[in-house]
Write a structure and sequence with these properties.
Two copies of one chain form a homodimer. The first copy, chain A, is an alpha/beta fold and 206 residues long. Chain A has two domains: 1-102, Formyl transferase, N-terminal domain (Rossmann fold, 3-Layer(aba) Sandwich); 109-206, 3-Layer(aba) Sandwich (Rossmann fold). In chain A, 34% of the residues lie in helices and 25% in strands. The first copy, chain A, has a seven-stranded mixed β-sheet. A two-stranded antiparallel ribbon of chain A has the order 8-9. The termini of chain A are close together. Chains A and B meet through helix 5, strand 7 and strand 9 of A and helix 5, strand 7 and strand 9 of B.
């Protein structure tokens, strides 16, 4: 049986689309069970509907605080048997309620080679620092901002004359390959968490 | 006329060897004028002698303090018309006397993708953090530890089962390509320092 994914998305959902495309391949070991957004009009929800995937808008205004929001979020994901949650452009801070419920079963993607340039505006940070190599990272979610155990990374060159936009576009093509790769490794049981390190088993368990 | 290099080396000098090998190519725009070591028996000095390059041992015990050592070092380099200094496994802390004399004309190499993992034991730091991509950086020397403006970088994968030694060996092959590349860019007048960023001009001035 294919692993049930929950995808959390607040924005345009380009990484969601890469995940949906991967799941459309017959040999991919996961399927998207539900896409959750905190924004009613997130284009990501349109992408989910177009792929025939259930969507759920959880309106922050319906909840007294972050913890009650996250409690509802966790319940909705668990009700649908979600085995792995993928944050894909989720703009809301997630509380320990969520992090604890899905520890080792929730991933996020960040467009830099972490630990360099965590947080907001990583491409601007990278260009301001003058690095010649940047990239993308998929990591397990923990309590920090982009601090979780690293699953996969890939590098891209920074080119002379790059702007935030040109660098972001180059990194995005790598993100779209990297997120499905991380999901596949998880779904095939090839990831083992040792301390803060993710050991990738070269052999599948299947 | 080819740019005169001074190379500072305390150890076995594998990056020095890569620089000597590059300089042996007829089209390379630089030559090693002198190799300086703070250690009398550094294998790097043997490599220099084997290449017919002048060597100089500056014994720290002959100087009262760091500043007087660096004053002598700067004088020896300037006497020989050195236009660019390459620190290649130089284990002594350099004072502002040196940094000011050669600002924008001194480079160092560090075996990580800076700003990640500066300082000692970068490979151990990288493995402990669990990154999946590491690499090497050539940067201009400034007052900090591995904080100077970045000239060139290249990435290498971290493989499952890597130790300090296997990762160091993989990064070292990249270092040996990267240091001559940075020297060539400098010698061809293609580097421009803007704030903390190094702009690489794709056209040579020649």
């Amino acid at each position: 049986m294919r692993l049930a994914l929950g995808v959390l998305a607040s924005g345009r959902g380009s990484n969601l689309q890469a995940i949906l495309d991967a799941c459309a391949r017959p040999d991919f070991p996961a399927r998207v069970a539900v896409v959750v957004s905190d924004r009613e009009r997130a284009p990501a929800l349109d992408r989910a509907r177009a792929a025939g995937v259930e969507t759920l808008w959880l309106n922050p205004k319906d909840f007294a605080d972050r913890e009650s929001y996250d409690t509802a979020l966790v319940r909705e994901l668990e009700t649908r048997g979600v085995g792995l949650v993928c944050q894909a452009g989720w703009m809301r801070i997630l509380s320990t309620v969520y992090v604890r419920a899905f520890r080792g079963r929730a991933m996020n993607i960040h467009p830099s080679l972490l630990p360099a340039f965590p947080g907001l505006h990583p491409h601007r940070q990278a260009l301001d620092h003058g690095v010649k190599v940047s990239g993308a990272t998929v990591h397990f979610t923990d309590e920090g901002v982009d601090t979780g155990p690293i699953i996969v990374q890939a590098a891209v060159p920074v080119e002379p004359g790059d702007t935030d936009d040109t660098l972001a576009a180059r990194v995005l093509t790598v993100e779209h390959r990297l997120y499905p790769e991380a999901i596949r490794l998880f779904a095939e049981g090839r990831l083992r968490l040792v301390g803060r390190k993710v050991i990738v088993n070269p052999e599948g368990r299947g």
